[in-house]
Amino acid sequence: MTKYLPPFLKIHSFASNMFVLTAIVSKDQQDSIQRRMSIACKTDLDDGQILVVCLLSQTELDKVYEIFKPLSKSWRGQFQALAKAVVNAYTDIQGK
Known about the structure:
By secondary structure, the protein is an alpha+beta fold. It has a single domain, classed as Alpha-Beta Plaits (2-Layer Sandwich). It has helices at 27-36, 58-74, 77-94, and strands at 8-15, 18-25, 41-44, 50-57. It has a four-stranded antiparallel sheet with strand order 1-2-4-3. Strand 1 (8-15) and strand 2 (18-25) form a beta hairpin. Helix 2 crosses helix 3 (77-94). The protein is globular.
């Protein structure tokens, strides 16, 4: 079994309706993100970790949240950790 670290994920607001999602994730988690949103930039880091950057509008961010919220309850392991990180970052930035 591959060792993985919990994802580090943060959403930053940089304009009235635009957001940057930054994450340090495993290769499998990065693949999961890429299937659900467009990745603007990715960089390989040490120990198999990848830095991922996504640019999102408010509408795109809301859609990403709606996708990951149910997954945070049904997925397990590293994918559940990723889904929970997305949901938590969204609620932090939206104040929900």
